[in-house]
Amino acid sequence: MQLLPSARALTAAAVAVATLVTGGSVAGAAPAPARPAAAAAAPDIPIANVKAHLAQLQSIATANGGNRAHGRAGYQASLDYVKAKLDAAGFTTRLQQFTASGRTGYNLIADWPGGDANKVVMAGSHLDSVTSGPGINDNGSGSSAVLETALAVARSGYQPAKHLRFAWWGAEELGLVGSRAYVNSLGSAERAKISGYLNFDMIGSPNPGYFVYDDDPTIEKTFKDYFAGLGIATEIETEGDGRSDHAPFKNAGVPVGGLFSGADYRKTSAQAAKWGGTVGQPFDRCYHSSCDTTANIDDTALDRNSDAIAYAVWELSR
Predict the structure, then answer these.
(1) Is residue 125 within 8 Å of 118, Cβ to Cβ?
(2) Disulfide engineering: 141 pairs with which of 95, 204, 219, 285, CB 3.0-4.6 Å?
(3) What is the pLDDT of residues 98-134, one digit of tens each?
(4) pTM of the predicted model, to two decimals?
């Protein structure tokens, strides 16, 4: 998740959206929670698989200067890893190139064959980290859960009524650059075909909360219904409002929603009473820091949120 504009110097570089490039490459689990009956159509997302993706992203960062930031080798290797998984699973993938802060960046878009192309359900997350750390919660967590949900679509042979599209955004940490480039590249007719965009940016925070975006009522209710089935109270997401990749979609009139487990805001006593954890401490004390490693993940939150992603994808694409 990007810092608030007042807390960072956003890049002043112009963003040049290039043509879509097809194909090719750039350069111990927590127990699964009981699932609500309404979620029976969606598969359980194996937390071990999500954590395996996180371990790969950590290894990539470690081998590339400790980060996976825009325009750097760690981001390119992260993109290659995700793309290879999707290609092998039968997705149609493409790279969208853009320029930010003097460096070339990429979005990865993956379409699952079939479904009504005039009614598209998208799920996405940003794949880049800040330069100061590997970005495992922010946002390896969202990226890995979206990846595993996409792979679950392929494993199950799911054929929804609506068309499914998944996305991994570049340069979010520089001011939502990649997702804005994608939205700006679409004509009004193409934007109108997106019936919903679901965003997942930080879903495994070590002192977690359970926050649901309240932008679109239908999407919001879908997530709330899932957590209600688990007996988990949620709160409206406000800390990251407008600070992640749903914002360009929302500004273009696309219905949006998503989940969030908290960043540098501090957990209140009321929130600790609902969710457990430590009162007065940040939801993620390693936010935008070098300690945002695989040790900076709450398995239970990651598991619940990953299952909620699959539930929403299945429910909203019927």
Answers:
(1) no
(2) 204
(3) 999 999 999 999 999 999 999 999 999 999 999 999 9
(4) 0.89
